[in-house]
Amino acid sequence: MLSSSLRINYILLFSLFGHTACLMRGNETDKLALLQFKSLISEDPFGALEFLERHHSLLRVACGHLQPEAWESHRSRSAIFQARSLKVIQLAHNHLVREIPSELGTIAKLEVLSIRNNYLTGEIPSSIGNLSSLHTLSAAINHLHGSIPGSLGQLKKIRVLEIAAINLSSTIPPSMLNLSTLTVITLTSNHGTHGRLPTDLFTTLPNLQDIGLDANLISGSIPVSISNASNLLRFRAAWNKLSGTVPSLAKLSKLRSLLIFKSYLGTGADNDLDFLSSLGEIPPILGKLQALNVLSLCANNFSGPIPPEIFYLSSLSIFFALSRNSSVGFLPAEVGKLKNLGALDVSENMLSNDIPGTVGACISLEQLHMAGNNFQGPIPSTLISLKSLQWLDLSRNNLSGEIPRFLEGRDMLQLLNLSYNNFEGMVPSDRVFNNASAAFVTGNDKLCGGDVFSFGILLLELFTGKRPTDEMFNESLNLQNFVKKALPGQMGEIIDPMPLEEDEYIDLTMKGNDQDRTNNRKSRVKECLASVFHVGVACSNEQPKERMSIADAVAELSSIRNKLVE
């Protein structure tokens, strides 16, 4: 059995490229150096070392097990850095610790350096800038800190630069704009990378295909030069402090993913979303971005109407999110053109008028989020065509009429939220609630048969800290059964400790003689909590006729409160 400290996947890949004869004759020092490093590998379940013994010319060690201290030892460093012809160092997904050796900068022919997903500390050594042949540098997911070295601007052949999730706290150095060969740059989740994006970022880096800036402190506007980034596939800059208008993206014909949510983009003007028009404008641009499959603009300051042109992008297949903005007007009927879209989220805006019936043409929809708007009128009957729908949230609107019967027996439906509208009549059938993991209809004063169920579910949520949509629940176990199975003897295993004082929660988990020693106050708490759970279960019974009435539920809870404060 391998010890946990040595259970390391893909520990080492050192490769030398070139003709075998040349390696055997001219790189004897490199061969001996790597064989010395090989001696530090303690376990080799895949037979990689035997391969090395038989093929010295390749000088490759793959999938071995490296002693945790080998990275730090003088012996191992000497072994690595004497191999001056190394072209690939692959040490990703290990348990490497301490600082990155500055000696790495002496391996002049190195082309690939991957040390991602380790426990390395300290700063990125400036000597990395000496690796003039380097085309791939991946140091993401470590415990590094400090700034982005300006010396990285010397890497004239670099194509892939990944220095994400390592807590860098600096601006993007101007020298980075010298890296005209860059195709991928990832600075996501550094949390401290700040400042403005250089105005000529996309002009000086014309080959950029993927730029990741998520979860940082970058401010200012998106550079206008992005309008000419014709090779760009993905632009990810969510969770920053970007502001202002979004430049035209009409020329970005290869763009697949645009994630700029959770910032301060938009000015509150009616033309905030004009850049969307440029994405899907028909002649003369004719739907330029026909590769775009992800578009997320949520949680910004975008105002004005949604341009109908955006819905001509038939390539949108994963999700389109515009939630938590200030969009006004109606949802364009052209939304029905998105027949391949998986998720549509326009919630938390100021959209009004009827929900367009053309939404029913979005036959691939699995999630439809329209909560927190001013939509009115009935739920369109065309939604019956959405056979794959799993989440439907129309809460907090002004919708009216009866709840459509086609919502009955929807096997795929997991969440149905129709709360706080103006629906009337009866909830069509209990099957609406049995098939969905969670269904909510509270806040519809003229609706009969549904409020008590939602009230019961709410009680169970409050006192267990769990939701019907949690991953632990499935077809054979729902929230109600989870509570019923625990009552009365195992209540301590299901209760959420947050509503209770700490000492009360501890006593609820005690058994036998320990429980006998609890005082009267704590006994009453336990008894009252059990009663609350019984009310929640009774109100959310799967059979409507067997549910406790709302009047009886209120009376029972009032009695529980009085008992608790005695």
From TrEMBL:
Domain Disease resistance R13L4/SHOC-2-like LRR span(s) in chain numbering: 76-279
The organism's place on the tree of life at top rank: Eukaryota
Membrane topology: Single-pass type I membrane protein
Signal peptide range in chain numbering: 1-22
Main localization category: membrane
GO CC field: membrane
Keyword entries, A-Z: Glycoprotein, Leucine-rich repeat, Membrane, Receptor, Repeat, Signal, Transmembrane, Transmembrane helix
Location of this chain's protein in the cell: Membrane
Pfam families attached to this UniProt entry: LRR_1, LRR_14
Similarity section: Belongs to the RLP family.
Alphabetized PANTHER family for the sequence: LEUCINE RICH REPEAT FAMILY PROTEIN, EXPRESSED (PTHR48053), LEUCINE-RICH REPEAT PROTEIN KINASE FAMILY PROTEIN (PTHR48053:SF37)
Protein name: Receptor kinase-like protein Xa21
Organism: Punica granatum (Pomegranate)
